[in-house]
Amino acid sequence: MKPLFVPTTDVNSETAVIRTWHVPDRVEITAGELVAEVETSKAIIDVNGADPGFILHAAPVGEEIRLTEPVGRTFDSLAELESFVAEREQPADADVAGPRATAPARRRAEELGVDLATLAADRLITAEMVEASARTAAQVTLELPPPLAPVTTLPKVGVFGAGLGATQVIDILRAAESAVPIAVFDDDVTRWAEEVMGVPVVGGGDRLIELVERSAIDAAVISISTSIRARTRLRQVCLDAGIPLVNAIDPTARITAGVTFGVGNVVCAYCHFGVGTTVGDNNFFSAYNSFDHHNRLGSDISTGPACAASGLVEIGDRVRLGTGIHIEPHVRLGDDVEVASGSTIVASVPANHSVKRRVATTVVVPRR
Amino acid sequence: MVAWEHVGGDLERGNLNTTVANQTGPQAPGARAKAPVETDRRLVGDLEEPRADRLYRRMRFIRRFEETLLALFEEGVLNGTTHACIGQEADAVAVMECLRPTDHVFSNHRCHGHFLARTGDAIGLLAEIMGKPQGVCGGIGGSQHLCAPGFKSNGIQGGILPAAAGIALANQLSRADGLSAVFMGEGTLGEGLVYETLNLASLWRLPLFIVLEDNAWAQSTPSHVNLAGGIAERFAAFAIDVSEIDSTDVEQIHAIAAGAVERARETRAPSALIIHTYRLCHHSKNDDARPEAEVEARWELDPLEIHAQRLHEARRRAIDQEVEAGLTAVLDTALRL
Amino acid sequence: MICSRAIGEALRVALESDDRVVLLGEDLVDPYGGAFKVTRGLSTDFPERVRSTPISEAAIAGVSAGLALAGFRPIAEIMFGDFLSLCFDQIVNHIAKYEQMYNGQVKCPVIIRTPSGGGRGYGPTHSQSLEKYFTGVPGLKVVASSLYHDPGVTLRTLLAQSTPVLHIEHKLLYPLHLLLPIDGRIDQDIAEERFGASGLPTTYIRPVERDECTVTVLAYGYQAELARRAAAKLAIEEELFVELVVPAQISPLDWEPIEASVRQTRSALVVEEGTRGWSWGSEVAAKLSERFFGELRGPVSVLASEPSVIPSSRELETAVLPTEEKIKEAIVRAAR
């Protein structure tokens, strides 16, 4: 059995949605045959079968798969394929004695070393319960570092999210000298006690709320760069807990006088916001974004580097722009629009739509 | 009014020793208790009266009621539709004379004659057709959908036959001795359900008494255009006993009806009585396209005239006046509701 | 106990405890005992009151009407739900109308039972779910059996009432074991019953408490069981938590128990086996949309059969009818 993976070097996507199967399930394919088309957050990718054989779809059209898992498998014979299927046909929690838990919960429990039997026995155990348990355990067993304690009159800021975005935010805050990042927070307990650019990860969202309540921290910046869902969720967490958000604006950014910003925005190096532009809350603008003039930008937007919008462009809430996108004047991108890297947008896009570009894939096969 | 969406109230277990057919069905909780119908002796007569007089009086009652009704429609006092039975009064009166209170009668869209002959409730019927709450069904059923003790009617051709058969089955199961009588027309013989019911009634030997009034015309269609084969043969095909008469003479009809009903009570088997008659009025209102000459000729055989010959002229006039007075009282009361 | 046996037992108890009960239908009598064997054994013990009829659906319904008018409690069987069309006049123009037409002077408490639904490859005229044409008829209750409602309790409740009933029994439920709530659980899920004006229960089945559920799925009969299986898999595999709401009486509906769920989840999916459009699902979607306008995350969605004949070939039939897979997909969409 040979697994077939989606060929991509896209580091920003973790999953892909299957758009089309070009060959039906369980048919014989030839080496290099085009078998499927999948869509990541950035691109549409053609998948060619590398090996000949009988192909088994891993998932149907419309389903989302992890890029670390095969999109299909090829077998030398149908019999092999069928016996593989038969083995897998166990219901998700059959033959599993002990506590009832969802599949994501079991996976997470294994990753985090949590014993499901220690959790509530009278209800279905979810991944969140497992993570909460791990956090509690970590709080007990891990020695969590304290936040930094600089002497300063600047606001003391918590960076919410310990991923790569945090490095950018910490760098920006230090360069801008507008606030001092004294701690990083993340609900993924495996990050706790690490350091991001010299700033310790001191706990999760609960700890952030605690420190704000104790006035040890004045405000937060959400550092997640690409996942709009995560940014939106964390913004709600801060809103519910009454945690103020501040902007982190790189000193090289050129912001014309009169341009208004909401709160919680991250603006990376060399961004340009031209005259008459208004910006909402909780947006993450990567480097070299330019909004020429009189743009109206919503909230919870995330952009890749080198995006440029002409004048009088409107961008709605929760819009995701990839890298290197050009937008012509008067275009309106509705809420929840996604735009693939390299697109040039010449007309408005209605809400809840995606702008995609096709990417050809090169397949490497041995010479005959 | 009983709320239809809510179902409530336990039914009492019916006492199966009572004659089931006498019930109008299990009493709905909350249904308005019906006051017993007061019948006017001037309209229905009584058992003290000589039968000849009584039969004439009742036919005259029906005739005048229907004529009054049609006049009220003409004048615009009534709305809706109605199906008068002028010319067929003898059938209703003759058959009802043979039935008991413990029997049940199911009638069709042309039910006024049957209803009046069975219950005598002129005010209940007129108020019903007028749409008044004092009507026998509160104005909800109207001319074709009547319900009273031992009597029901519905306006769907053929649809009443299986219900009547079901009531007959109920009598059979509870060992009650009532008959279940049902009135139909020859046009109804077009409906398939009639044959399903005849088949079942015969197989299960149900005490069902069918009175078929062949009035030669089904709405605007003469019966020979509607019916292949013979009428009596249809019943015979299901091994159902048939009597047949071609007459508008109430005494003749009564004689044959009495014999048929007697046999039905004895055998407890289904049977049919075919009466060839004629409708002298329109099908409903102003829809008569029959050849004038034919209709005129049939007026010569008016059942009231035929039977009136048996009465003294003075007696006849007296009865006519009594019926008129009775109906005038009914009309007065009804118009004041 | 399997569903068909449970229904047969319920009929037996009814015959034993109430001598007004009469069973009519085609081929009911032993040794055959009915096309789906539901009435097996009954005619032997109650020969006068369990009768086979000729092939006369309209007369079966009509004679039942007469029996009911005369004080009996007829329970008629129409061999396939597809044949209900043959009794449409008797049900709609007679049985459902007598009480109201005669101003409450009579009751006509006929119960008509019928096996319905597809999935056995019986073809276009033996696989349909025609109850959609009887829902909403004034004066008529439409009740659907499911695995979560005890048929004995349902029948006892209906016999204590006096409204005419159309009792739909999906034939694929017959060989399945009932899944009645035990100690507030069905299988591993939480199960709860709520009663409304109908007198019959609406059953909730959910893997976690309602405030963690993000979709309400409304279904009856066999589709409820498919929805339950789909929901169970989604709970385990995706942590997508659904509250399944299964009313016993599908027309008129007890709205309160349904609304209680939708109010919390703010997203509703209706699953039915009748053909899509102009249906039970359409009515539920309209009512819920009216009730919760502006409060829902999206329009109420309806998953139904394709508007075509139900083919006999297994593959083609599966493409027309709802399936567990299609229900899963619909739930995922409704959960967004």
Layout of SSEs?
The complex is a heterotrimer of chains A (368), B (337) and C (336).
Chain A: E1 2-4, E2 15-21, E3 28-29, E4 34-39, E5 44-48, E6 53-57, E7 64-66, E8 72-75, H1 78-88, H2 103-112, H3 127-141, E9 156-160, H4 164-176, E10 180-185, E11 195-196, E12 199-203, H5 205-213, E13 219-222, H6 228-241, E14 248-249, E15 254-255, E16 266-267, E17 272-273, E18 278-279, E19 284-285, E20 290-291, E21 296-297, E22 302-303, E23 308-309, E24 314-315, E25 320-321, E26 326-327, E27 332-333, E28 338-339, E29 344-345, E30 354-355, E31 358-359
Parallel strand pairs in A: 5-31, 9-10, 9-13, 10-12, 14-16, 15-17, 16-19, 17-20, 18-21, 19-22, 20-23, 21-24, 22-25, 23-26, 24-27, 25-28, 26-29, 28-30
Antiparallel strand pairs in A: 1-8, 2-4, 2-7, 3-6, 4-5, 6-8, 11-12
Helix pairs in contact in A: 2-3
Chain B: H1 41-44, H2 51-74, H3 89-98, E1 104-107, H4 112-119, H5 122-129, E2 147-148, E3 151-153, H6 160-173, E4 180-185, H7 192-204, E5 208-214, E6 217-218, E7 221-222, H8 223-226, H9 231-237, E8 241-246, H10 250-267, E9 271-276, H11 292-299, H12 303-308, H13 313-336
Parallel strand pairs in B: 1-3, 1-4, 4-5, 5-9, 8-9
Antiparallel strand pairs in B: 2-3, 6-7
Chain C: H1 3-17, E1 21-26, H2 42-45, E2 50-53, H3 57-69, E3 73-77, H4 88-95, H5 98-101, E4 111-116, E5 141-144, H6 151-160, E6 165-170, E7 185-186, E8 189-195, E9 201-206, E10 215-219, H7 221-238, E11 242-247, E12 249-251, H8 255-265, E13 268-275, H9 280-291, E14 301-305, H10 314-320, H11 324-335
Parallel strand pairs in C: 1-2, 1-3, 3-4, 4-6, 5-6, 10-11, 10-13, 13-14
Antiparallel strand pairs in C: 5-12, 7-8, 8-9, 9-11
Folded structure, characterized:
The complex is a heterotrimer of chains A (368), B (337) and C (336). Chain A is of the alpha/beta class and 368 residues long. In chain A, 20% of the residues lie in helices and 25% in strands. Chain A contains 6 helices and 31 strands. Chain A has a 7-stranded parallel β-sheet, with helices on one face. In chain A, strands 15-17-20-23-26-29 form a 6-stranded parallel β-sheet, with no helix packed on it. Chain A has a 5-stranded mixed β-sheet with strand order 7-2-4-5-31, with no helix packed on it. In chain B, strands 2-3-1-4-5-9-8 form a 7-stranded mixed β-sheet, sandwiched between helices. The longest helix of chain B has 24 residues, at 51-74. By secondary structure, chain B is α/β, with parallel strands linked by helices. The model of chain B is unreliable at 1-33 (pLDDT under 50). Chain B contains 13 helices and 9 strands. Chain C has helices spanning 3-17, 42-45, 57-69, 88-95, 98-101, 151-160, 221-238, 255-265, 280-291, 314-320, 324-335, and strands at residues 21-26, 50-53, 73-77, 111-116, 141-144, 165-170, 185-186, 189-195, 201-206, 215-219, 242-247, 249-251, 268-275, 301-305. Chain C is built from 11 helices and 14 strands. Chain C has 2 domains: 3-173, 3-Layer(aba) Sandwich (Rossmann fold); 185-335, 3-Layer(aba) Sandwich (Rossmann fold). In chain C, a hairpin with a 5-residue loop joins strand 8 and strand 9 (201-206). Chain C has 336 residues and is an alpha/beta fold. Chains in contact: A-C, B-C.
